[in-house]
Write a structure and sequence with these properties.
Blueprint: E1 3-9, H1 14-18, E2 20-21, H2 31-44, E3 51-54, H3 58-68, E4 75-77, E5 92-93, H4 94-100, H5 115-132, E6 137-142, H6 144-155, H7 159-162, E7 173-177
Length: 182
C-alpha cells in the first residue's frame, strides 16, 4: 500500500525573522515558532500519524519535539531531510541566496550542494520510507528544498519552476508515496 506523507515546514526561526538563509546552520525557533510548533502538534496529534521524521537541523528537531514530544508518536531524525547546503552562503541574507537559486539547480553553491543533490537525498529517504512504512501515514518536518524535492519526485513538477516560485505557507502538504517508487 502507498505511504501517505504529510509535509510541514519547520516553524518560524529567529533567522527567518531576521531575513537570514540558515542552510546547514542549526538555527533555532523564535517565540512565534515555538507557538506555531504547539499549534502543529494540536493540528496533527490525532491525525493518524504513525511516525514523525525530521531533518537533524535544530530548527526542525525543535519543531517536532515541541509538537510531538509529549505524545507516543515516535520522532526520527534523518540527515537526508536537511535543507540545501548553501556552502559559503549558509547564514547569508535570504535575498543573496534567492538570487542564486535558479543557477544552483544542478550546480552546487560554492562549498555546498545543488538543489538536485537535495532531490537525490530525499529520493534515498523515500525509498527507505516506502519499504519500512508501507501503508502508513507519516509526517515530515523539514525545509523548503525538501518540499520541492517531494514535488519533483511525487508530483512531477520541475525544480527550475519551484525554486523561483514565491513561498506560500500553508498548514501542511499531502503527498502519496507509491509502493513502487521511482
Amino acid at each position: 500500500m502507498p505511504v501517505e506523507i504529510i509535509y510541514e515546514t519547520h516553524q518560524t526561526s529567529t533567522d527567518n525573522e531576521a531575513g537570514i538563509a540558515t542552510g546547514w546552520l542549526p538555527g533555532e525557533l523564535s517565540a512565534l515558532g515555538r507557538k506555531q510548533a504547539l499549534e502543529l502538534g494540536e493540528r496533527r496529534r490525532n491525525d493518524g500519524i504513525a511516525a514523525v521524521f525530521t531533518s537533524d537541523l535544530r530548527r526542525a528537531v525543535e519543531s517536532a519535539e515541541i509538537a510531538f514530544g509529549a505524545t507516543d508518536i515516535p520522532i526520527f531524525q534523518d540527515v537526508r531531510l536537511r535543507e540545501c547546503n548553501y556552502g559559503e552562503l549558509n547564514g547569508a541574507p535570504v535575498a543573496r541566496v534567492e538570487a542564486e537559486r535558479l543557477h544552483r539547480v544542478t550546480t552546487p553553491f560554492p562549498g555546498g550542494q545543488s538543489y538536485d543533490d537535495v532531490v537525490h537525498a530525499t529520493e534515498m529517504f523515500l525509498q527507505d520510507l516506502a519499504t519500512d512504512w508501507d501503508g502508513s501515514r507519516v509526517l515530515l518536518v523539514a525545509h523548503r528544498a525538501n518540499r520541492w524535492a517531494l514535488q519533483v519526485l511525487l508530483d512531477g513538477e520541475r525544480l527550475e519552476d519551484l525554486v523561483v516560485a514565491p513561498f506560500n505557507w500553508q498548514p501542511g502538504w499531502r503527498f502519496t508515496l507509491p509502493t513502487t517508487l521511482l
